[in-house]
Amino acid sequence: MKNLILIRHGKSSWDLPVKDIDRSINQRGISDAHLVSYNCIKLLPSQFVIWSSIAKRATETALIFAKNINYPLENIIFKDDLYTFDENQLENVIKSCNNSVENIILFGHNEAITNFVNKFGNVFIDNVPTSGFVSLQFDTDDWNNIRKGVTKKTLFPENLK
Fold first, then answer.
1. How many CB atoms lie within 10 A of CB 50?
2. How many CB atoms lie under 10 A from the CB of residue 100?
3. Considering the chain, what percentage of its residues have pLDDT values greater than 70?
4. Separation CA 156–CA 72 (nearest Å)
5. Residue-wise over 133-161: b if at least 16 C-beta within 10 A, else e?
6. Where are the domains of the chain?
7. Half-sphere exposure of residue 74, counting CA atoms within 13 Å on the CB side?
8. Which CATH superfamily is domain 2-160 in?
9. Please, which residues bridge with residue 133 across strands?
10. pLDDT, tens digit, 9 for 90 and up, residues 131-156
11. What is the pTM assigned to this prediction?
């Protein structure tokens, strides 16, 4: 059994004229990331790895979650190829995971996340919001063989306020 939790980065700031990859999360993004991370603790497997896009907004979101769920910050794996908006590239990164890993928490970007969860989950989600949490389970022991799975849980900021 393989479990994948996809979390879209927190709401980003457009206040500064910076490159897309360098945009930070704004105050709402910080608040929502804290809100979802505190509420997801009971939904997490006992062991997991955290992967994050290298984009600043994804990195900041991953750090907030890691601190709140007591995950060692130095164990977060930052991946260049997770800075993608394409679900096929996201799928390729996930399928490349070592099979010794059973559970991944991944911080990334839309449209990749929404399209991925609709392709691989069994619940249609119109749009995974910023700081949105979607848990998928796959009946396989090989990441490369993931097919249609089960959407186990969603946690969105608007449902927690």
1. 23
2. 5
3. 100
4. 24
5. bbbbbbeeeebeebeebebbebbbbeeee
6. 2-160
7. 0
8. Phosphoglycerate mutase-like (3.40.50.1240)
9. 7, 155
10. 999 999 999 999 999 999 999 999 99
11. 0.97
